[in-house]
Design a protein that fits this description.
The chain is mostly helical and about 110 residues long. Helix content is about 80%, strand content about 0%. It has helices at about 1-10, 15-30, 35-45, 50-95, 100-105. Helix 1 (about 1-10) packs across helix 4 (about 50-95), helix 2 crosses helix 4 and helix 3 (about 35-45) packs across helix 4 (about 50-95).
Length: about 110
């Protein structure tokens, strides 16, 4: 459930996600030690792709094995994917309307 919460409310990019994960998993829940967290973060930084997503997957795997990997990764990724899909659908549907031009200007693909 905590991965779904982080995937839903964690805005600000990988640096913000990682800070929130450290606070949640190391300080509040004591799921992993600071040293383990930093080891996983170092490994995630070596792999191409978003470090925060990889870190969430690593932590899920360390807590519950392969099932934890799948659940943590999905719960962390799906909220952002749904949000981006909704914004894309709104852009396609309403992007050509003059009233929406100002609202959608910030997310314009141009």
């Amino acid at each position: 459930m905590v991965f779904l919460k982080l995937g839903t409310i964690a805005f600000g990019g990988p640096a913000a996600h990682i800070a929130m994960m450290e606070d949640e998993f190391v300080r509040k829940r004591h799921w992993i030690t600071e040293a383990d967290f930093l080891d996983r973060l170092g490994a995630a930084n070596l792999i191409p792709g978003p470090s925060s997503t990889e870190l969430a997957i690593f932590i899920g795997h360390s807590k519950r094995g392969w099932a934890g990997l799948i659940v943590a990764g999905s719960c962390f990724i799906v909220p952002a994917a749904v949000l981006v899909s909704l914004i894309a659908a709104a852009y396609v549907r309403f992007g050509s309307l003059p009233k929406m031009a100002g609202i959608l200007y910030a997310i314009s693909p141009r």
